[in-house]
Amino acid sequence: QWKQLENLYFREKKFAVEVHDPRRISVSRRTFGQSGLVVQTWYANTSLIKSIWVMAISQHQFYLDRKQSKAKIPSARSLDDIAMDLTEMGTPKISKLVTLEAKNQLIMASNGSLISSGSQDSEVSEEHKKEKIMELKKKEKLLQEKLLQKVEELKKICLREAELTGKMPKEYPLSAGEEPPLVRRRVGTAFKLDDNLLPSEEDPALQDLESNFIIQQKLVEAAKKLASEADLCKNVKKKRKQEYADAVKKLQEIENSINEYRIKCGKKPTQKSTLTLPGKQ
């Protein structure tokens, strides 16, 4: 019977009716500790379930309106009076149906209940709303924390790029009115050449080869620093290792040229690169 109805609701493809039965004692999580509830459940596609729910809500509203009308109608009345009353009650009934339809439009397509459609049981409705609001606030907080973390990571990447290129990328996140930070280009491969690199009058050709060797030696050191730099992508790391290997190879070729020239001049060969570089590269 309608007077035993506790709630009507649907969730996705599920339609359920909660009926109060004093003969049975149970506890339902949805009713927050109320006892004596029996739940009947049916399953179908979402559109059909929602249609059934809307019809059930309308039937229940008709039951409430009819109950209220019976309480107002006197016991002894003529048929004309009854017809007149029904005619007058037609307009508010239509408006109620329109109001009910408008309320249904505000209810989510995959979620609805007798409580959400305007039941008198507002306490459960408010409690349900509070739970949903708390859940949404918790999700919002987690998303904000994750967003801040990603923004900090993006800032570090942009600063890293600015140190290498000398120019701050446009993707650097800025707050309203915030100016981008000034970053100096990091030159981690700078080196100082020896003062005695100019050719001497003693042997200009040999001095020129020695100068080339010293310059190439500094280039090898710079290439090694670049190749051993952390946080490099796979392609860049591979390219820098190859550049380092090419620089080492060229250094060895210069030393071979120096030794050939020294032997030609009757001097002993040297092993500068083997003393400078740690093993074979």
Automatic annotation (TrEMBL):
Chief localisation class: cytoplasm
Subcellular location: Cytoplasm
Limits of the FERM domain: 1-67
InterPro entries linked: CUPID (IPR021774), FERM_domain (IPR000299), FERM_PH-like_C (IPR018980), FRMD4A/B (IPR047176), PH-like_dom_sf (IPR011993)
Name of a matching Pfam family: CUPID
Keywords, ordered alphabetically: Coiled coil, Cytoplasm
Sequence intervals crossing the membrane: none
Cleavable signal peptide: none
Keyword Coiled coil: yes
Entry coiled-coil feature ranges: 126-153, 237-264
One GO CC term on file: bicellular tight junction
GO biological process, one term: establishment of epithelial cell polarity
PANTHER family on file: FERM DOMAIN-CONTAINING PROTEIN 4, FERM DOMAIN-CONTAINING PROTEIN 4B
The protein, known as: FRM4B protein
Gene source species: Sagittarius serpentarius (Secretary bird)
Gene giving rise to this polypeptide: Frmd4b_0
